[in-house]
Amino acid sequence: MTSSHTFAGRHLLGIEQLSPADITTILDLADQYVDVNRRADKHSDVLAGLTQINMFFENSTRTQASFELAGKRLGADVMNMAMQASSIKKGETLIDTALTLNAMHPDILVVRHPHSGAVNLLAEKVNCAVLNAGDGPHEHPTQALLDALTIRRAKGRLHRLNIAICGDIAHSRVARSNLMLLGKMENRIRLIGPPTLMPSQIDQFGVEVYDDMRKGLEGVDVVMMLRLQLERMDGGFIPSAREYYHRFGLDAEKLSYAKDDAIIMHPGPMNRGVEIDGTLADDIHRSVIQEQVEMGVAVRMAVMDLLARNLRTARANETKKETYV
Prior knowledge:
Strand order of the largest sheet: 7-6-5-8-9
Oligomer: single chain
Radius of gyration: 20 Å
Structural class: alpha/beta
Distance between the termini: 35 Å
Strand content: 5-15%
Number of strands: 9
Shape: globular
Order of helices and strands: HEHEHEHEHEHEEHEHHEHH
């Protein structure tokens, strides 16, 4: 696989550190991996000889499966660590875990953690490439990248689009990463949701904010619905699921205010009848939710490919230095 721009990152910890050129490089390479994944023979040897460890401190089905599939299709030795039953539960610190992992000599570490900044801390302590698969409400970079690839393929571009992100903005790392990525690519972003689910200091985000779905969706190209993060709420954020759907759930009537060719997105898992009408979610003419899942594998393959190249280059340079010394 080839990429036209040099990607210099050692880790992928967030969208914040990426330039528009970095984002384009990842998406261009991911486009090639979409084609690979649609072939009868989907395997390559890009990560042959490398070990990928998936550490999910939070439960995840689709993200973990996507990373595992991506690593195996690239030829890596993939290991999933059951962190819910790990030594962390017995009192081991994150630093101890990092030191233990280092002794195993992994090459790529994929980490999901319930606390913001935990993945960055691990990255400082290990001698391998670290990939953030979601850290608390902070960031979820590969989700934003797969969303971007889905939009670009559906709309033919990733700039100067009107994009509405709707629902639980306050608790969503998906929203935060998408805000950064779509902003870097010069899109006009609207946030729609109840005031109780908007982050504090929202006026500093450089976006339009609405608490009325119909006004907010008027003339948009992309409607990105979010999952209600009930596990991060301690009550009082919404009156009831029924009331939430009435005001902020996406149905055909509210969607009619968007452009006729507007696409519908959702990072999953969906609460049908709460965040989105099930018929709309399955509408093959408007919904790109299944395409998002497909793009997720391709994006994760592209990111691990690029990080592996940099890892191999760095290790080769270290070997040269040791030889000269």
